[in-house]
Amino acid sequence: MKKVHGDFLIGAATAAHQIEGNNTNSDFWAMEQMEHSAFKEPSLGAVDHYNRYRQDIDLMAEAGLNAYRFSIEWARIEPEQGHFDEKELEHYHDVIRYCRSKGIEPIVTMHHFSSPKWVIRQGGWENEGIIEAFKKYCVYVIKAVGSELTYVCTINEANMGLQMADLVRTYMKNMKQDIQVGVNPEFYANMKKTEEENIRVFGTAKPEDFLSARTEQGDQLIMRTHEAAKHAMKAICPHLKVGITLSLHDFQPDDDEASRKIAQKEWEKEFIRYLPYITNDDFFGLQNYTRKLIGKEGVKGVPEGAEITQMNYEYYPEALEHVIRKVAESLEIPIMVTENGIASTDDGRRISFIKTALDGVAHCIEDGIHVIGYMHWSLLDNFEWQMGFTKTFGLIAIDQNTKKRIPKDSLRFLGNYDWRID
Fold first, then answer.
1. Which Gene Ontology terms describe the biological processes this protein takes part in (predicted)?
2. Closest C-alpha among 243, 263, 245 to residue 253
3. What are the backbone dihedrals phi and psi of residue 105, each rounded to the nearest 5 degrees, phi first?
4. pLDDT at residue 192 in the model
5. What stretch of H or E contains 251?
6. DSSP alpha helix (H) spans, 146-256
7. Domain-located, residue 2
8. Which of 39, 41, 284, 408 can pair with 388 through a Cys bridge, CB separation 3.0 to 4.6 Å?
């Protein structure tokens, strides 16, 4: 097998809100505190990465990783519109400098799901004003730290809103069926209470946070926001390599024409539709966790008897290689795997997942596909959004009482994988 070059980036990824703690000016913090919150529990101090980032970066370096993808939290940098916090900017500047001092490439994501609360009060990610607001935030950050960065991701999983819209449509369809047969008669009553609380907190019954079910217009707005931010940042620091990340599945159709057509339609909706916005980017951030089987009626469930993760995804690390190859058919820019991993309490299965996934990456490189890095999700067991702290994706476990870091065997396995240097 061809070995990859020594400048190949191999590391782990995180998101600020999930690990830092006390992100009090963000929309997610506000939603977590609500009486009718959809969150299992609030993030509170999360895993205190805000104060312990040096320790966490040390563990990465000691394990042999050479890259760290993390996000800068907009709600910390600009807690109120037009008010930028220099102290918070300096915090992230120090994270970047500390990565460099440890031989770790800092890969910054400017937006990873959470937004300032004021953004949502102004219409959120369905409001045309998001383009200028996000651009100003990016410009402020890059003017200060851009000279010390190489890779910047503008927006994490920019296509997540349309995926959420599909989930909401399915959920609402099922809920209506349940209500008709009397299974869940309190559904609409609870929804009404939530809307009333949203009005008090966000000024609207249906706040448009980044993970809200996206409209077609809103989906295009996100990509226009990406373009505007990219051009603005590169105008300040032309050396920057700027891209975006998308959540992609390995669509596998049954062996018939109807299934193949449905799989192609799903792929076009999840990836092809974004090509006009990303073809001229400097790299593409590819994020994959599993496959989806497609039949004549559409997406099928996980095969009976298949191993599943804590997220109820099928354990299928082979998906990554398949998706890289599929992306490369339409996109010529370098590919960085910005997320790939599993939620599991069995670290042995995580190691097996990593090995199979990285073998797939190596096969792609051997065939001439330009893959420049692999970021495992996640560095730390963390706050998994609405599911709280119950899902363990991390290479490092966290004692929630003491915040003690407990490196797993998978961390060192990833950092010492023997094909990464030629």
1. carbohydrate catabolic process
2. 263
3. -75, 120
4. 86
5. strand 250-253
6. 160-180, 187-202, 216-236
7. no
8. 41
Which of the 8 DSSP states describes residue 5?
P
What is the structure's pLDDT at 111? 98
Alpha helices in 211-283 (DSSP H): 216-236, 257-270, 275-278
What count of Cα atoms within 13 Å lies in the side-chain half-sphere of residue 351?
Answer: 12
Do 75 and 116 contact (CB within 8 A), yes or no? yes
> Residue 142's domain spans which residues?
9-415
DSSP conformation letters of 61-97: HHHT--EEEEE--HHHH-SBTTB--HHHHHHHHHHHH
- Asked whether residue 176 carries a pLDDT value surpassing 80, the answer given is no
Q: Tokens standing for 355?
A: 């090995």
Query: 59: which DSSP letter?
Result: H
Q: Is 382 helix (H, G, I), strand (E, B) or coil?
A: coil
Long-range contacts of 76-79 (CB under 8 A, 24+ apart): 76/16, 76/23, 76/25, 77/137, 77/140, 77/141, 78/116, 78/137, 78/140, 79/25, 79/116
Strand-by-strand arrangement of the 291-295 sheet: 250-253, 291-295, 298-299
Question: At a CB cut-off of 8 Å and minimum separation 6, what does 397 contact?
Answer: 381, 405, 406, 407, 408
End-to-end CA distance of the chain: 11
- Establish if 4 belongs to a structural domain: no
CATH code assigned at 222: 3.20.20.80
Instruction: Report how far residue 55's alpha carbon sits from residue 38's, in angstroms, rounded to the nearest whole number.
Output: 32
Mean pLDDT of the chain: 94
- Residue 64's pLDDT band, with cuts at 50, 70 and 90, is very high
Q: How many domains does the chain have?
A: 1
Classify residue 422: in a domain, yes or no. no
Residue 97 lies in a domain: yes
